[in-house]
Design brief:
Elements: H1 4-10, E1 14-19, H2 27-36, E2 39-42, H3 48-51, H4 61-72, E3 76-84, H5 90-93, H6 97-114, E4 121-126, H7 141-146, H8 150-161, E5 166-171, H9 180-195, E6 201-204, E7 207-208, H10 218-226, E8 231-239, H11 243-258, E9 263-268, H12 294-303
Parallel strand pairs: 1-2, 1-9, 2-3, 3-4, 4-5, 5-6, 6-8, 7-8, 8-9
The chain binds ligand G3I.
The site of ligand G3I has 9 residues, from loops.
Length: 305
C-alpha cells in the first residue's frame, strides 16, 4: 500500500488518527486525513463534558460532524470515551450514589445508542487505575460512590446499547509488562473474561517520551492481553522526539502490533505535530507543513513488510 490506512488494511488492520472538529475546515488537514487514515477518533468531541454539559442536555453537533465526515469518506470510527473521571462536567461530581448510577447508565445509553452500528470500538471506561506501584483503582467519583462494580456495570450497559461495537478498557502507562498498573488492568480483564462481563478489547494509549520510552517488553504486553481472549488496540500513539530515533520507536510499535494477531489497529493521537496535545515534543507522523516525517516512512515501511 501507499498510505497508512491502505497498508494496514492489507494486513487486516486499521490505521487511525484522532481528529478535532475545529480543524475540519483546513484543507491540508482534511487532505491528509482523507488520504492516509481509515479510522477516526474524536479527540475531545465525544467526551462527557462535550456531549452532556448539563444533566440530560445532550449536544451531538461536533461529534456528529466528525462521524459524518469519517463515514462520508468510508472510514471507520472509534468511540472515545463513555466514562472517564477527566473532562467530566461539574454536575456529575455532585450526584449521590443513586443519581450517579442512573446518570452514568443514561450517558452510556445516549452516546452508544446515538451511534449504534457506526462505531467499531468504544472506550467504555478510560483511565480507571492509579499510577505508581499500588495497582489500585483511581479514587474517582465513580469509584467513591459506586464501588468496585462500576466498571463492569458500564460494560454491561454499553453492550446493551450497541451490541455490535467492540467494548474496550483504555489506559496509559500500561505498556510495560512489569508495571503494577499493567498487571492490575490485566487482572481485571482476566476476571471479567472469567465471569462473563462483556469486554472485547484493551486499548493501550501508548504516549511515549524520554521518561517513558517504548518498553522492551511491549510486544509481550500486547500478546499477554490477547491471550486472555480480547483484542488489543493501540489507541493514542504518539512518541516524543525527531528524526531516526523517533522513527525507530514508531517502527518498534508498528512491528509489535503486526506480530500479535489480535492487535487489530493503531491510532495516532493527531495528524500534524503542531496540533498535538504536546506540540512542543513533535510526537506525530507529519510536521507542521504536513510533510511526512522519518517516523511516517518507518511506519509505512513496517506495514508493508
Ligand atoms: O473547548 C475549550 C474551548 O472552548 C476553549 O476556548 C479552549 C481554551 O483553552 O479550551 C478548549 O478545551 C480544551 C480541549 O482540549 C479542546 O481543545 C481543553 O482546555 C484542553 O484541556 C483539552 O485537552 C485535551 C485533553 O485530552 C484533556 O484531558 C486534549 O486536546 C486531548 O488530546 C487529550 O486527550 C487525552 C485522551 O482523551 C485520554 N488520554 C490522554 C490524552 C492526552 O491527554
Amino acid at each position: 500500500g501507499t498510505t497508512l490506512g491502505q497498508s494496514a488494511a492489507e494486513k487486516g488492520r486499521y490505521f487511525g488518527a484522532a481528529v478535532a472538529n475545529h480543524r475540519l475546515g483546513e484543507s491540508n488537514y482534511v487532505t491528509t486525513l482523507n488520504r492516509e487514515f481509515n479510522s477516526v477518533t474524536a479527540e475531545n468531541e465525544m467526551k462527557w463534558d462535550a456531549t452532556e454539559p448539563s444533566r440530560g442536555n445532550f449536544q451531538f453537533g461536533n461529534a456528529d460532524r466528525i462521524v459524518n465526515h469519517a463515514r462520508g469518506q468510508g472510514k471507520m470510527v472509534r468511540g472515545h470515551t463513555l466514562v472517564w473521571h477527566s473532562q467530566l462536567p461539574g454536575w456529575v461530581q455532585g450526584l449521590d450514589t443513586n443519581n450517579l448510577r442512573s446518570a452514568m447508565n443514561n450517558h452510556i445509553n445516549q452516546l452508544a445508542g446515538r451511534y449504534r452500528g457506526q462505531i467499531h470500538s468504544w472506550d467504555v471506561v478510560n483511565e480507571a487505575f492509579e499510577d505508581g506501584g499500588s495497582g489500585a483503582r483511581r479514587n474517582s467519583v465513580f469509584q467513591q460512590r459506586l464501588g468496585n462494580g462500576w466498571i463492569e456495570e458500564a460494560f454491561r450497559t454499553a453492550r446493551q446499547a450497541d451490541p455490535n461495537a467492540k467494548l474496550c478498557y483504555n489506559d496509559y502507562n500500561t505498556d510495560d509488562w512489569s508495571h503494577a498498573k499493567t498487571q492490575a488492568v490485566y487482572n481485571m480483564v482476566r476476571d471479567f473474561k472469567n465471569r462473563g462481563v462483556p469486554i472485547d478489547c484493551v486499548g493501550l494509549q501508548s504516549h511515549f517520551n524520554n521518561q517513558s520510552p517504548v518498553p522492551g517488553n511491549y510486544q509481550t504486553t500486547l500478546q499477554s492481553f490477547a491471550n486472555l481472549g480480547v483484542d488489543v488496540q493501540i489507541t493514542e500513539l504518539d512518541i516524543a522526539g525527531s528524526g531516526q530515533q523517533q522513527a525507530e520507536s514508531y517502527r518498534t510499535v508498528t512491528r509489535a502490533c503486526l506480530n500479535v494477531s489480535r492487535c487489530t489497529g493503531i491510532t495516532v493521537w493527531g495528524i500534524p505535530d503542531h496540533y498535538s496535545w504536546r506540540a512542543d515534543q513533535t510526537p506525530l507522523l507529519f510536521d507542521r507543513n504536513y510533510n511526512k516525517k522519518p517516523a511516517y516512512n518507518a511506519v509505512l515501511e513496517e506495514l508493508n513488510r
